[in-house]
Design brief:
- The protein has helices at about 10-15, 20-30, 50-60, 85-100, 155-165, 185-200, 210-215, 230-235, 270-285, 310-320, 370-375, 395-405, 450-460, 465-475, 480-490, and strands at about 40, 65-70, 70, 80, 105, 115, 120, 120-125, 145, 150-155, 245-250, 265-270, 290-295, 300-305, 335, 340-345, 410-415, 415-425, 495, 505.
- By secondary structure, the chain is an alpha+beta fold.
- Strands 12-11-15-16-18-17 form a six-stranded mixed beta sheet, with helices on one face. The chain has a four-stranded mixed beta sheet with strand order 1-2-8-5. A two-stranded antiparallel ribbon has the order 3-4.
Length: about 500
């Protein structure tokens, strides 16, 4: 029996943790693609040349990752014959040792690494310590990050983001250069002071006026210079000093990836209490609704695609826990409402807590501890709280998803960013009749295709393209594009034209 594979991630807890290799492969086949934490390679001709970037990227990923050699994504992860397994294992170890700092690999024994009678190579990539990140492929080489099923070079800003993980964050306690006491909103400050006196009368509430604000670090000195936390929570217009400390929301109604990037795009500015309320109003305008009747009294009400209170909690978490360091000041919190899911992305990963621990009673950790303390007593202008500090927000989200019949949100900690992916309610299964005509822009998602094949089909809807054009347009590796094109041609979904001495072109049937 295979030894269970344990990684630090709730998605891994659902997909990987305590699962044997058979279950992992089954999950890969269900997803029809590699995942953030698992990379499968054919490797029948030897160690892939790009494996060093994968090892590096996974070492930089919270929880690490898993590499499986001997599975072919192009055939839905069927095993292939490996000619020299010892050489593959030795090659993996050599690549890990060449990384700076050296990456630790755990390679499974032969009896643990069998898929349907064929031996594969399974290597668990251990996460590097934060004090050593970012890991690089070699001395003086590039660092890489993991995103979806790809590995991407770190930008200068992302390099700085990893370096900021080496010390306890304190960006929220800094003074805001150029700001004065006049940049704080008097109404929000008044509400804050009243809440402090009400809920902490024996502590911070013993002080009044400027002394209260100074001790709470809303302001940093006797001149009234606001702190970063103070200006974000209680400022008149924080974006005067931090233009990208905003929330950008967009909606895409079409399931066609080649359609418009988004509609109903809105950028929310102002202090955190105002942004939170405006995000909720945007959700009410853009979430689809259905009418629900109450048999007990005959009343009706609107049911939103995603529970509003849970959405409010997710946005609140992003606002409170986003990274505030210099490297991230060009990044905004992004909310994308797609036909099949809601995605919320914010700069900065979790701090002092793993994804498995989210919502666990008694487990709390804050990247921006001073901001959390200020927001604990901050209220919106209509009196609603901004944050809670008793770890009740995450259980509320999970319970709301359950009551609404929605899948549990997926939380992805990528060290320098954090993503929430919340799938919509499952749709009724559709007939799997043979394809008799080219798919239209609105029915690509109904085909039983892998995500990469769907992207290729969507790209060809605007006209014929060569494999090289698809690689450049979609950002998918060349060998993967070729495999999916070959499969689509065999299925009759797309057509190929070219010939000897000519470049093949691919198109949808007329």
């Amino acid at each position: 029996m295979s030894t269970p594979l344990v990684l630090k991630n709730p998605v891994n807890s659902r997909y990987i943790s305590n699962m044997d290799l058979e279950s992992i492969v089954k999950k890969l086949r269900l997803e029809k693609t590699d995942t953030l934490w698992i990379e499968a390679k054919r490797a029948e001709g030897g160690l892939p040349s790009s494996i060093d970037t994968t090892i590096c990227a996974m070492a930089n990923l919270p929880g690490g990752g898993v590499i499986i050699l001997g599975l072919d994504e192009g055939t839905n992860f069927q095993p292939v014959a490996l000619t020299d397994i010892p050489a593959l294992k030795q090659g993996l170890i050599g690549k890990a040792r060449a990384c700076v700092p050296r990456v630790v690999l755990e390679i499974w024994d032969q009896e643990q690494s069998m898929v349907e009678g064929s031996e594969v190579v399974v290597a668990v990539v251990k996460e590097a310590d934060n004090a050593q990140k970012p890991v690089r492929v070699s001395d003086g080489g590039k660092g890489y990050k993991r995103d979806w099923d790809g590995d991407y070079p770190l930008s200068i800003q992302e390099e700085q983001g990893f370096q900021s993980l080496r010390t306890h964050p304190a960006s929220d306690r800094k003074s805001v250069q150029g700001a004065t006491r006049e940049d704080l909103d008097p109404d929000l400050v008044k509400i804050y002071e009243e809440a402090v006196r009400t809920f902490d009368p024996g502590g911070l509430g013993r002080f009044v006026g400027e002394e209260l604000l100074l001790r709470a670090e809303v302001i940093k000195d006797s001149q009234g210079t606001p702190s970063v936390a103070g200006i974000l929570a209680l400022g008149k217009y924080p974006q005067q000093f931090f233009p990208r400390f905003v929330v950008v929301l967009s909606k895409r109604s079409s399931s066609d990836p080649s359609a418009s990037r988004g509609t109903n795009v809105k950028t929310l500015t102002g202090p955190i209490p105002l942004i939170l309320e405006e995000a909720l109003e945007w959700a009410k305008e853009n979430f689809s609704t259905s009418i629900i009747g109450d048999a007990s009294d005959g009343s009706v009400s609107d049911k939103y695609d995603y529970p509003l209170e849970a959405f409010r909690e997710l946005i609140g978490n992003a606002l409170v826990h986003r990274d505030l360091a210099d490297w991230s000041q060009g990044d905004a919190i992004e909310v994308r409402l797609l036909p099949d899911c809601l995605i919320i992305t914010s700069p900065g990963g979790l701090f002092g807590i793993t994804v498995e621990e989210l919502g666990t009673p008694g487990t709390t950790s804050a990247r921006n501890a001073r901001l959390v303390e200020i927001l604990k007593y901050t209220r919106t202008l209509n009196g609603k709280r901004v944050v809670e500090t008793l770890s009740s927000g995450m259980p509320l989200i999970l319970e709301a998803a359950k009551l609404a019949g929605l899948p549990t949100p997926i939380f992805q900690d990528r060290a320098i960013s954090f993503k929430v992916i919340w799938k919509s309610a499952p749709q009724s299964p559709t007939s799997s009749s043979p394809i008799t005509q080219a798919p239209s822009a609105t029915d690509v998602s109904t085909l039983n295709l892998s995500p990469k094949s769907m992207l290729i089909v969507a790209a060809l809807q605007v006209g014929p393209k060569t494999a090289s054009q698809l690689v450049a347009e979609l950002g998918i590796k060349k060998d993967n594009v070729q495999y999916h094109l070959s499969k689509l041609v065999k299925q009759g979904i797309i057509l190929s034209s070219g010939g000897v001495g000519k470049t093949n072109s691919y198109r949808l049937p007329n």
